[in-house]
């Protein structure tokens, strides 16, 4: 049985005070779902990581970075390494988010290097893949996602516990227009098939694969009941502690 995972991507939102305030509201709202299934992960901006980590002490909430650099230290202005993330208490890191791929021109090659450095640094990468609207309209969604998976994982050994994949169709991110649960299930089953071919069926069936793209409390249930969907990566709706706690509750009640 795969673990369910619900991850918040705060993007470039919330300073330290706001992060602390959020956790003070969020933890009591979790109530009796303060446990490791689902695994609840919050990924704030780098500048709020330590504050967030301190604030969640005593709870089961885990923290993660939104990006990572592939070297551990050196002359790389503006970058943050795996040891720096773990030093701030991170257990996870988002890699290959579409905003980084499309706004910051992040390449598959660099995403591969970031996955390698995450694993070498004892961080679990949340690898994001997904097609643009144009690619979907041109019937290229599967090819694009297959390519992203192969390139991101090239030469990398994974185990059941050290990878999470998030299927995030670019056209559904931050738009309020979510993929239909059937389409998300279809693509996520396809991703699991890719993992099976890249590794083996046992491993593929043990890796959590999340859906991301305009998830909110009103639609989480429709996704979590699908056979291959193990949770969600949530952007906008994770910024509100009450809304996010309801999304977690929906995953818990599955
Ligand atoms: C995301 O940023 O990963 C995301 C899914 O955003 P949103 O939930 O706002 O669509």
Description:
The protein has 254 residues and is an alpha/beta fold. The chain has a single domain (5-253), classed as Alpha-Beta Barrel (TIM Barrel). Helix content is 43%, strand content 14%. The chain has 11 helices and 8 strands. It has helices at 16-30, 49-55, 82-87, 98-103, 108-120, 133-137, 141-152, 181-198, 201-206, 217-224, 241-253, and strands spanning 5-9, 39-43, 62-65, 92-95, 124-129, 164-167, 209-212, 231-234. The chain has an 8-stranded parallel barrel with strand order 1-2-3-4-5-6-7-8, surrounded by 6 helices. Helix 1 runs parallel beside helix 11, helix 7 packs across helix 8 (181-198) and helix 10 packs parallel to helix 11 (241-253). It is globular and about 45 Å long. It binds phosphoenolpyruvate (PEP). Phosphoenolpyruvate binds at residues 9, 168, 173-174, 212-215, 233-237.
């Amino acid at each position: 049985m795969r673990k369910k995972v619900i991850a918040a991507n705060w993007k470039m939102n919330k300073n330290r005070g706001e992060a602390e305030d959020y956790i003070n509201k969020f933890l009591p709202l979790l109530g009796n779902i303060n446990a490791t299934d689902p695994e609840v992960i919050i990924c704030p901006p780098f500048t709020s990581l330590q504050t967030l980590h301190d604030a969640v002490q005593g709870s089961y909430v885990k923290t993660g970075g939104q990006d990572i650099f592939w070297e551990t230290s050196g002359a790389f202005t503006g970058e943050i390494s795996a040891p720096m993330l773990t030093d701030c208490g991170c257990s996870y890191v988002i890699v290959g988010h579409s905003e980084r791929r499309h706004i910051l021109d992040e390449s598959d090659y660099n995403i591969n290097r970031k996955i390698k450095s995450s694993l070498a640094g004892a961080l679990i990468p949340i690898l994001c893949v997904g097609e643009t609207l144009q690619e979907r309209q041109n019937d290229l969604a599967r090819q694009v996602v297959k390519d992203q998976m192969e390139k991101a994982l090239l030469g990398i050994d994974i185990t059941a516990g050290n990878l999470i994949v998030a299927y995030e169709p670019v056209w559904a991110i931050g738009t309020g227009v979510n993929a239909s649960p059937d389409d998300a299930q279809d693509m996520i089953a396809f991703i699991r098939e890719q993992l099976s071919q890249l590794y083996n069926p046992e491993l593929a069936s043990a890796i959590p694969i999340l859906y991301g793209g305009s998830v909110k409390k009103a639609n989480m249930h429709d996704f979590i009941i699908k056979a291959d969907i193990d949770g969600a990566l949530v952007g906008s709706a994770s910024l509100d502690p009450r809304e996010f706690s309801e999304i977690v509750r929906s995953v818990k009640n599955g």
